[in-house]
């Protein structure tokens, strides 16, 4: 036994041994706890990585969904505009821009009233929906385009809410119905014209019989009066008035009746030549100082499918109208030409005068029935022309300058000569 061992009592060694053993046990437990904590940490890292991947995938899906929804929104023909609870515009798609004239980049983020306060004719807007909490279903209103033109729109609107029913804002979907409104007006006008046509046909039939009788009586009176009788001049005025009235009712009857055309192949130059020769005789007989020129290229006949009588009447109406537009004289030129490259299926002829011309704001109206700028005009001559041209599947083009003259070009479908 050594001196150190002899001096340390046995109980103390036991205490140290026991403490050391406890330390070892606790160290092992700490080591095990640390190892377990590392395992838990690894699991947590794995779970975090998994959650991060899921979150990234979710964000990608959300972005794809948002992109898809935006694509749908931008592809819609209907305009879509939405606002938040503060009235700021949050959505404004391409169609909304086209209908209103405002760019989405300009209006998004701005208050609705700041942008559209002076550009709406209706209080049925998205802000009223936001205030009242009540939307509109299948309603119509008028809004102003940015350039100042009114636009008829059909619309529906609703309050935007989340899943818990809390208000998020309001949305409006609208579409331009200006074309539909125009078609409705045209349809109504067609119905009115149809009813007017039926009435006119009846009235004309009742008027023509006494007109014919009056003409006969006037002829008998003219025969019985001596040549030097001053009453003959008055009688001639009556006869001229009767002839004019008969011309008016005849035109009214022609316009109001359904067209019963007899189509056949005709040479356009022949119809033009015959009609213009008659106009030349009439102009000379009436003392009109009108020079008539023809450029018909008769060596190259142009075949069209037409009713010769109706075609002749529309040419005559155009020529008479041109002569009347030159009260102080002038020149009337009739030209005929084969189609060019752009209109290869159509032949055309032009009636050109050097008369008083037509004001720009009147050009779109001259073919409307009963519209006339002449003091004693009926407004039916050119309306009949338009009706006959449409019936022949053709179309008209007009150019005019005040005090310079007018050119009316008529296009008719051409028959293929090589068939």
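Q: What amino acid sequence fits the structure above?
A:
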């Amino acid at each position: 036994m050594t001196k150190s061992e002899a001096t340390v009592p046995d109980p103390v060694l036991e205490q140290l041994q026991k403490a050391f053993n406890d330390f070892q046990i606790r160290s092992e437990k700490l080591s095990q706890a640390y190892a377990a904590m590392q395992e838990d940490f690894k699991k947590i890292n794995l779970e975090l990585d998994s959650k991060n991947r899921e979150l990234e995938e979710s964000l990608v899906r959300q972005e794809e969904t948002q992109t898809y929804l935006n694509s749908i929104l931008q592809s819609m023909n209907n305009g879509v505009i939405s606002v938040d609870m503060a009235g700021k515009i949050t959505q404004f798609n391409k169609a909304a821009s086209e209908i209103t004239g405002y760019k989405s980049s300009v209006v998004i983020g701005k208050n609705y009233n700041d942008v559209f306060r002076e550009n709406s004719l209706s209080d049925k807007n998205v802000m009223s929906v936001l205030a009242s909490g009540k939307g509109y279903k299948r309603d119509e209103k008028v809004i102003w385009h940015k350039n100042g033109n009114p636009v008829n729109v059909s619309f529906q609107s609703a309050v935007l809410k989340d899943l818990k029913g809390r208000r998020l804002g309001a949305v409006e979907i609208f579409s331009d119905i200006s074309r539909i409104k125009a078609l409705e007006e045209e349809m109504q006008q067609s119905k009115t014209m149809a009813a007017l046509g039926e009435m006119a046909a009846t009235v004309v039939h009742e008027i023509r019989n006494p007109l014919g009788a009056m003409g006969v009586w006037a002829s008998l009176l003219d025969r019985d009066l001596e040549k030097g009788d001053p009453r003959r001049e008055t009688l001639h005025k009556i006869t001229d008035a009767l002839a004019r009235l008969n011309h008016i009712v005849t035109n009214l009857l022609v316009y109001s009746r359904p067209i019963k055309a007899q189509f056949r192949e005709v040479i356009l130059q022949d119809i033009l030549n015959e009609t213009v020769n008659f106009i030349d005789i009439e102009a000379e007989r009436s003392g009109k100082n009108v020079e008539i020129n023809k450029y018909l290229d008769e060596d190259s006949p142009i075949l069209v499918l037409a009713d010769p009588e109706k075609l002749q009447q529309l040419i005559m109406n155009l020529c008479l109208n041109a002569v009347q537009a030159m009260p102080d004289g002038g020149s009337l030129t009739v030209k005929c030409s084969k189609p060019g490259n752009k209109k290869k299926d159509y032949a055309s002829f032009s009636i050109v005068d050097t008369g008083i011309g037509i004001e720009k704001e009147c050009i779109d109206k001259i073919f409307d029935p009963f519209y006339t700028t002449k003091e004693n005009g009926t407004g039916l001559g050119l309306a009949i022309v338009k009706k006959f041209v449409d019936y022949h599947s053709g179309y008209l083009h007009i150019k005019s300058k005040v005090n310079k003259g007018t050119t009316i070009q008529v296009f008719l479908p051409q028959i293929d000569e090589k068939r």
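Q: And what stands out in the fold?
A: The longest helix spans residues 10-75.
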